[in-house]
Amino acid sequence: MAVDGRALDGRALDGRSVDGMVLFPGAGSGADHASLFTIEAAVDPLPVSRVDFAYRLEGRRFPDRAPKLIPEVATAVERAAAQWGSDPSRLVIGGRSMGGRMASMALAEGAIDAAGLVLVSYPLHPPKRPDRLRIDHLGGVAVPTLFVSGDRDAFGTPDELEAAHALVTGPVTAEWITGGRHELSRVADNADVAARVAAWLER
Questions:
Q1: What is the pLDDT of residues 112-161, one digit of tens each?
Q2: Tally of CB atoms within 10 A around 61
Q3: Domain boundaries along the sequence of the chain
Q4: What is the pTM of this model?
Q5: Mean pLDDT across the chain, nearest whole number?
Q6: Ordered DSSP codes for the chain
Q7: What is the pLDDT of residue 197?
């Protein structure tokens, strides 16, 4: 099987073949965010679809709520699977911050299937609001899941995030970027995140 002239490279997670990745951006950025490009390059020749939410394409600053965003995730994953002659259950999905959270919610709610989940800078709670945890759905995530977070992320400390990781029922891998904040905006941070995503796929 080939996509845009590239052969799918037959990677697998927990016994599931992986034919591609679908990645979603954070609330304040788009599919052209440098970190998503860096991940795409790091996992080549595995095909990657970077997807903007509708509010972004419409020029609106503030994101829609989860009930609208989750179906957009499912539609984008189904579209990528069809384009690649694959099935959603053979794709890894996820993204940065809000994009990754929406992907995790789509999986937990059964809106879509996937081979695995990549969550970069998972927004566990709003800054300085550890009482508002975004964890209720995590018990419904049953696929191999990679969390990559900075150890200085205001949206969740390592201890808080590790407690949340334990709620996921699938295999969890946690990676920490030393000195990284939520944005992971340094060029070195982006390269580090991408390398860890690629290594997780290889493992």
A1: 999 999 999 999 999 999 999 999 999 999 999 999 999 999 999 999 99
A2: 8
A3: 2-202
A4: 0.92
A5: 92
A6: -EETTEE---EEETTEEE-EEEEE--TT--TT-HHHHHHHHHHTTS-EEE---HHHHTT-SSPPPHHHHHHHHHHHHHHHHHHTT--GGGEEEEEEHHHHHHHHHHHHTTS---SEEEEES---S-TT-TTS---TTGGG--S-EEEEEETT-TT--HHHHHHHHTT-SS-EEEEEETT--TT--SHHHHHHHHHHHHHHHH-
A7: 97
Provide the terminal-to-terminal Cα distance of the chain, rounded to the nearest Å. 22
Q: Which residues pair with 50 in a beta bridge?
A: 23
CB 88 within 8 A of CB 81: yes
Superfamily (CATH H level) for 2-202: Alpha/Beta hydrolase fold, catalytic domain (3.40.50.1820)
pLDDT of residue 15: 62
Q: How far is CA 130 from CA 123, 124, 203, in A?
A: 11, 8, 33
- Residue 139's contacts (CB-CB under 8 Å, 6 or more residues apart) are 108, 167, 168, 169
> Backbone phi, then psi, for 106, in 5-degree steps?
-60, -40
Tokens found for residue 103 = 């992907």
